[in-house]
Design brief:
The complex is a heterodimer of chains A (406) and B (390). Chain A is of the alpha/beta class and 406 residues long. Chain A has 13 helices and 14 strands. Chain B has one domain: Thiamin diphosphate (ThDP)-binding fold, Pyr/PP domains (Rossmann fold, 3-Layer(aba) Sandwich), CATH 3.40.50.970. In chain B, helix 3 runs antiparallel to helix 12, helix 4 packs across helix 10 and helix 6 packs across helix 13. Chain B starts with a helix and ends with a strand. Classes of the chains: A alpha/beta (406), B alpha/beta (390). At the A-B interface, helix 5, helix 6 and helix 8 of A face helix 7, helix 8 and strand 11 of B. Chain A: It catalyses: N(6)-[(R)-lipoyl]-L-lysyl-[protein] + pyruvate + H(+) = N(6)-[(R)-S(8)-acetyldihydrolipoyl]-L-lysyl-[protein] + CO2.
Chain lengths: 406, 390
Amino acid sequence: MASLQMAALLSAPSTPVPSDRVRLGALRLSASSSSTARNGGALVVRSEAKVSGGGASARGLSLITHAVAEKAAAASSADSKPGHELLLFEALREGLDEEMERDPTVCVMGEDVGHYGGSYKVTKGLATKYGDLRVLDTPIAENSFTGMGIGSAMTGLRPVVEGMNMGFLLLAYNQISNNCGMLHYTSGGQFKIPIVIRGPGGVGRQLGAEHSQRLESYFQSIPGLQMVACSTPYNAKGLMKAAIRSENPVVLFEHVLLYNLKERIPDEEYVLSLEEAEMVRPGEHVTILTYSRMRYHVMQAAKTLVNKGYDPEVIDIRSLKPFDLYTIGNSIKKTHRVLIVEECMRTGGIGASLRSAIIDNFWDYLDAPILCLSSQDVPTPYAGTLENWTVVQPEQIVAAVEQLCK
Amino acid sequence: MAAALLRRASTSSSASLLRPLSGRLFSSDETVLSIETSVPFTGHKIEPPSRMVDTTPKELLSFFSDMALMRRMEIAADSLYKAKLIRGFCHLYDGQEAVAVGMEAAITKADGIITAYRDHCTFLGRGGNLVQAFSELMGRQAGCSNGKGGSMHFYKKDASFYGGHGIVGAQVPLGCGVAFAQKYNKEGAVTFALYGDGAANQGQLFEALNISALWDLPAILVCENNHYGMGTAEWRAAKSPAYYKRGDYVPGLKVDGMDALAVKQACKFAKEYALANGPIILEMDTYRYHGHSMSDPGSTYRTRDEISGVRQERDPIERVRKLILAHDIAPASELKDIEKEVRKQVDDAIAQAKESPMPDASELFTNVYVKGYGAESFGADRKEIRATLP
């Protein structure tokens, strides 16, 4: 039983296990890993830690003492896998809850975040726990409540402003650009704006053009702003916590279609770095840079590519402003080929800027032109088939890699 | 005799006959005088405060010298702009000094003020000094924003002065946010969010007012109505130019903004109201002598007669001067000395500001982000630090 779970953990490239991010401590072995004998592959893993149980196991060897697999009751009283499983929106909530508990100046503002629990349930239960002054339901007035969030941040509060859909924050663009991004500079450093602006964006399931916007392309040139995009429950919680603790204004991009992703995340507290990219799958042949939902299309394409004999290196860039050119650069120096897969539109998207940045910094290391797969420069259509053609699909990614590696 | 003096506070000629030959009528600077404002207050959904304002000779003299300083600073800025030492946009406040000075008299430094781009005098009122102001205008290092903000971006955090904003109306939601923080932290303070008659038509004002009224925030919205939104007269821009009534469900007060005592009374009243009940709107009926900014002559949309008429009849400094002379608080020669002193202060400050150097090239990149990004981050087992940024 335990060994099957272990096998699953060690071999899966498709479930986003942050392999070099977390050392999951010593793997605990149960003495009753007898099922492996029957499966043919005896999986013996030496572990440094002492194994619970007596006898030969104390010397660190696993002995198959029973013919029939025993329930893993002898394992430690905590469950056999560390951490707890949850969905991405719950991970965001957990991060938010922990930060609100830790720091009384953190408050949440947005439409329907309080009594309703949040339109994507990210803030569910927080209003009952923290009260109406800390989880504030606003009227539908993005321009002014974003402005109010920024004004309160100037005094030292740490508001988390939610846009019910990122696209609605276009109404607050003036506040975000001029006041949020620039006040620290124009006041000569007197005012800090430790605000977090978050919300779901991206192309969903036939939500229509106005509700499928990708605002990262509009915000990316605002000086003074930091932008991050989460893609898994693990990085969602970590980035949420880092964004709240950061003294700079941070825009956290979530994606409408990723809220129900399930993953096992650690029980211990952790905070991720806002400027670091995530190595999803190390490889040798080509560097694929992606973020948010497109990561999953890339990983799907990666399965096909692996079957065809390619070895792609997949990096989830996570930090959209500033780019983690260190991780990206190291990867390019290894593979010499770059494919960018993004959900922004071709014109003026994150991919366009990333391409520029790579050309400026790593031109000498490139063996082939940088390919960038983006969404089409069209308003997102309602019809399902058309919507699918708007965004990048795994087949296109496979074709692009094949072209790059010719 | 004293009572007769009080009632004829605005006319100076008759008062001088009643003055004894030697010394002053009032022996101490802290004697309370009750002076009637020139015009009564008009209320919207609220009982207006009394027209009788309590003040002291000391306060009147401080009004005079503060306003004289502000006036001189703005005139000097005019000359500096024409000499091309100040570039870009320069919006001057002369004529409106009573609003800044009267407001300061009613509040403390714990109360917040936020305003738009006509902020030089508000900055001085909050405790900013002349050298910082002139240096910032000329883009020098000694400026209050290190030379990187300019005329429209004066700030003074330790005095709760939140600026200094170029985009019309955007400062009002910010001000309501500051009021929110004051309520959140239970500070017992209020925030004055100033805006003009042009900005009064911005939607975000009404949005912020709605939220402030819903959440009972101690926010006071102050419309400095100088009757012109750049070149557009108020009656051409607003269907309802009664700005104190525009709050609808939020009470409002119309105040003579050229009378520093009326401003003081209104702000005191508004502060008490806002702390207990939530937002209130004040409309200050005021006037600017200069055009909208230095690039606007200010005479294409109004007549010179109008400007000189207001200057003769309603000038805030002259009004206080007459009050001081009428109550025999100081002789005219002393007031002239104050003006000379103020002139000298301004000239000295300009000379000092001119000596301040331009910012270093490295300053281009400072304060874009808060250094260090503020986050230390580590992996789940807390033993590996992934990044501690410098």
